[in-house]
């Protein structure tokens, strides 16, 4: 036991999956910076060396050869500091592991015990579970090592490590974001600290990886559940903080409630936790306890930051120089335009206005105004001639039939072809602009407005889109999206006087039913008990179920909820089960 302060660095970094050399170089720099700042310990996120999740890269033997070489090279730079690094270990099996790097070598390894296999997680496909909690000593301070899900569980390994004497629980994490996740997770960590009478050092990944966004929000919490330090959300950070392990020891003298649990553990004849080793490094100068306390963003600011980061990293990590999308003058494409310019800068954004005979002058004017306000490149492609050409080609096959949804969808598919042509010609990434409300019920055109490389708003309901545009309009001196865009009734403008509410319930009702059915798995009868009309509920459920084949073909998009289409919600396309209200 030590009464000396522990100075730790939480390296909240943005790894790129598969870029082992690039990630290792970034980690080496962070280890050096941590040492210069007087840290004795630096903690990295879960699987930081490879990025999370590496998925089927973990089925390639040569991938592990590269990981091992990079880990050894990284370890060589750990003089006068201990680094805890997330990596995939291949021995008798494959483990989600944390390497303790010290004295220029890989000194010890802890293996994750709880492997999540729900929602977006698929760890049991790739990893064997570890079997033993682990502790190590650093300058006389006993540390317990855990990885992500290990600390979400209210019992071992954290409880066993605390009972074995750990004064600090270190947690390496890649905890994916959803709306409100940061505070939810922070409350959980406060509870773990108080329950176990330990300080907690939690280091989370940050950045976008395909559909997932990691929000950072790393924290240090003391044994009383008091926040000592908080790293920023949605940004890389090397957060330095100082703990006083002596306070943990003093708290345990005042609160002996764990003595019986320790006795039971000793009586079992088994060690509560495997000792990984004892390490001594120079003590840095301590100027005060704790560290910086970043503020938590308000809901709209947080959602906007998540979408912006997800779009930025998908574009950057996949090496696209520019994005392109259809700008209609509607609320959805307006939000995509705002996010794209804020993420990438106006010089990397092209907006395409593609009017048809059904496009109102007002929406077209608003589209041009938005592009001008943002300073983005504007491309105008009139689709009237293309529509006439399609009509002529199909005139024989369609003879004797009145125009209907087929002709409406042709317009969307012409637009999809045009933006894809720009993508092919110039190598730009096509962004789709559809939202979760529309995608849920199939109010989207396959190979039309669904055509693209990345669906920015795929997991964002319509109501939140309005709130985000309003919020963004308030952030600067100039209004970027005209009020008319927010006030105009939503319309696909594929026929004269078309409005969304002619085909769908009002969006406030639709979003509420969808939140219940899609995100909470409520059935029709349960939704009716919440006050929604049975006919409306059954109609919405019918639309959701029959659109599964469309969603299966949609591009990836940013996960914002606990039940996003694609990684979270997986239903069979061929499916005759029907949820009825009565």
Features:
single chain, alpha/beta, Rossmann fold, 2 domains, 20 strands, 18% strand
Q: What would you note in describing this structure?
A:
The longest helix has 22 residues, at 405-426. This protein starts with 5 loop residues before the first strand and ends in a 31-residue tail after the last helix. With 582 residues, the protein is of the alpha/beta class. Strand 16, helix 9 and strand 17 form a beta-alpha-beta unit. The model has no long low-confidence stretch (mean pLDDT 92). It has 2 domains: 6-279, 4-Layer Sandwich (Nitrilase/N-carbamoyl-D-aminoacid amidohydrolase); 299-497, Rossmann fold (3-Layer(aba) Sandwich). The chain has helices at residues 20-36, 61-75, 149-152, 158-163, 181-196, 245-254, 259-267, 299-317, 331-344, 361-374, 384-394, 405-426, 436-441, 462-473, 483-487, 507-519, 524-529, 534-546, 548-551, and strands spanning 6-12, 41-43, 82-90, 94-102, 105-111, 134-138, 141-147, 168-173, 199-204, 206-209, 212-215, 219-221, 227-230, 237-243, 274-279, 323-326, 349-353, 377-380, 429-432, 454-455.
Write the layout of secondary structure elements.
Blueprint: E1 6-12, H1 20-36, E2 41-43, H2 61-75, E3 82-90, E4 94-102, E5 105-111, E6 134-138, E7 141-147, H3 149-152, H4 158-163, E8 168-173, H5 181-196, E9 199-204, E10 206-209, E11 212-215, E12 219-221, E13 227-230, E14 237-243, H6 245-254, H7 259-267, E15 274-279, H8 299-317, E16 323-326, H9 331-344, E17 349-353, H10 361-374, E18 377-380, H11 384-394, H12 405-426, E19 429-432, H13 436-441, E20 454-455, H14 462-473, H15 483-487, H16 507-519, H17 524-529, H18 534-546, H19 548-551
Parallel strand pairs: 1-2, 2-3, 6-15, 7-8, 8-9, 16-17, 16-19, 17-18, 19-20
Antiparallel strand pairs: 1-14, 3-4, 4-5, 6-7, 9-12, 10-11, 12-13
């Amino acid at each position: 036991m030590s009464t000396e302060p522990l100075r730790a660095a939480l390296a909240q970094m943005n790894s790129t999956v598969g870029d082992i050399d690039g990630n290792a170089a970034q980690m080496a720099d962070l280890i050096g910076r941590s040492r210069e700042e007087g840290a004795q310990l630096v903690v990295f996120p879960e699987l930081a060396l490879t990025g999370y999740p590496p998925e089927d890269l973990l089925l390639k033997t040569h991938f592990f050869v590269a990981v091992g070489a990079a880990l050894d090279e990284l370890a060589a730079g750990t003089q006068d500091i201990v680094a805890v690094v997330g990596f995939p270990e291949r021995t008798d099996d494959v483990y989600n592991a944390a390497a303790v790097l010290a004295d220029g070598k890989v000194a010890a390894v802890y293996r994750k015990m709880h492997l999540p296999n729900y929602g977006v997680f698929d760890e049991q496909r790739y990893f064997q579970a570890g079997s033993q909690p682990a502790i190590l000593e650093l300058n006389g301070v006993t540390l317990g090592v855990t990885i992500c899900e290990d600390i979400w569980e209210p019992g071992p390994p954290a409880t066993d490590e605390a009972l074995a004497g750990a004064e600090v629980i270190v947690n390496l994490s890649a905890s994916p974001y959803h709306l409100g996740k940061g505070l939810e997770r922070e409350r959980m960590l406060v509870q773990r600290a108080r329950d176990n009478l330990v300080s907690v050092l939690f280091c989370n990944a940050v950045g976008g990886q395909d559909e997932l966004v990691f929000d950072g929000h790393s924290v240090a919490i003391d044994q009383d559940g008091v926040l000592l330090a908080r790293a920023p959300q949605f940004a890389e950070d090397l957060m330095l903080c100082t703990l006083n392990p002596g306070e943990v020891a003093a708290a345990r003298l005042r609160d002996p409630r764990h003595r019986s649990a320790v006795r039971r553990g000793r009586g079992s004849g088994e060690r509560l936790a495997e000792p990984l080793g004892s390490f001594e490094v120079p003590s840095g100068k301590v100027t005060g306890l704790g560290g910086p306390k970043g503020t938590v963003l308000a809901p709209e600011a947080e959602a906007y930051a998540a979408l912006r980061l997800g779009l930025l990293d998908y574009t950057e990590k996949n090496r696209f120089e520019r994005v392109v999308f259809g700008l209609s003058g509607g609320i959805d494409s307006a939000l995509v335009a705002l996010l794209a310019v804020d993420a990438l800068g106006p010089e990397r954004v092209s907006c395409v206005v593609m009017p048809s005979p059904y496009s109102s002058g007002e929406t077209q004017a608003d589209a041009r105004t938005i592009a001008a306000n943002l300073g983005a490149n504007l491309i105008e492609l009139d689709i009237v001639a293309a529509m006439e050409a399609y009509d002529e080609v199909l005139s024989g096959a369609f003879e004797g039939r009145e125009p209907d949804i087929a002709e409406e969808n042709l317009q969307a598919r012409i637009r999809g072809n045009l933006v894809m042509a720009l993508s092919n010609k110039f190598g730009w990434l096509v962004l789709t602009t559809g939202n979760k409300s529309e995608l849920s019920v199939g109010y989207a055109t396959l190979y039309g407005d669904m055509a693209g490389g990345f669906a920015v708003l795929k997991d964002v309901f319509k109501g939140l889109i309005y709130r985000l545009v309003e919020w963004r309009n308030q952030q600067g001196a100039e209004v970027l999206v005209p009020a008319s865009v927010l006030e105009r009734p939503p319309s696909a403008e594929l026929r004269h006087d078309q409005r969304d509410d002619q085909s769908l319930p009002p969006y406030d009702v639709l979003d509420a039913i969808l939140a219940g059915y899609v995100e909470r798995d409520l059935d029709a009868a349960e939704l009716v008990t919440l006050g929604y009309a049975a006919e409306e509920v059954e109609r919405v459920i019918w639309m959701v179920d029959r659109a599964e084949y469309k969603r299966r073909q949609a591009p990836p998009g940013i996960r914002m909820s606990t039940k996003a289409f694609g990684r979270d919600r997986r239903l069979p396309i061929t499916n005759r089960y029907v949820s009825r209200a009565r």
